[in-house]
Amino acid sequence: MKIDIFTHILPVKYKETLEKELTSSQKSAYTTQRYLPTLFDLDYRFRIMDRFDDLMHVLTLSMPPVENIASPRKAADLAKLANDEMAELVLKYPDRFAAAVACLPMNNMKAALDEADRAIKDLRFRGVQIFTPTNDKPLDSPEFLPLYEKMCQYNLPIWIHPQRPQSYVEYKGEEASKYTIHGMLGWPYETSVAMVRLVYSGVLESYPALKIITHHAGAMIPFFAKRVTGWIDSHDILLGRKDAGKLRRPQVDYFKMFYADTAIYGHTSGLTCAYDFFGAEHLLFGTDMPWDNQLGLRYTRQTIESIEQMAISAAEKKMVFEDNARSLLRLAV
Question: The whole model's pTM is what?
Fold first, then answer.
């Protein structure tokens, strides 16, 4: 079996409600969804899934984050609607959907914590998804710590999804990011920044049981790990800082606490880099389905092929494809 732990969906009722809530400018910022029927049309989705042997999806709500487009009260309502509908899908199609991941209204932390409880206890969700940055704030902000404590208590993971709008320009004087660089490179950068902040702020030291799944194979960290830790070491000495000195363990140990998916769209060397850094135990099959020009088929096929081409044992490939998901999410399938 292959359990894809990072697939996206826009449930139909939620999608209809969302479209009524979006302003004209918000609709223009999220136009891509309308060209991806796999997000909301289950027939499309199932036809693609049927191209692969024994494939199951874990559902995460597609962008936009509810806190980006709604008031604190309305965001809470949208999150409940999305979660209820995803729960219905998992219940109705147990042979298709292994689990769902909760959407949280992160501009309303009381409601977010309550919704995490409801989703996990009542709807049997297997974790929560948050975005980075959240409300233009870093993930090490004190207001988010209660969520981390709660997820440690549940012993379930947090999915981190990066975001950066196309209005975020690379150079002054331009009106928008060119060539979709904001997502292509900006999103992995945002994930990497979040990981660095969570490590050096002491969040992972304070919550050693916290389990975080990073998108896009751990982003820049596996490749740049020595640069990150060497940079911190050098600046601690040269500038008298204590960024690493505040940590009880070697810096790299904290980065290896993260989990990573395989959503780099079919790059075996890149996955091998992530494997070398995180180890097979912290690498999980995830495709970013359906965000490709074949409505999810391309990235699913290329990701499976790239894992199968890795120079690792059959047992380790099985860990990546299914065993790690079963263990981390405590799945019954």
Answer: 0.96
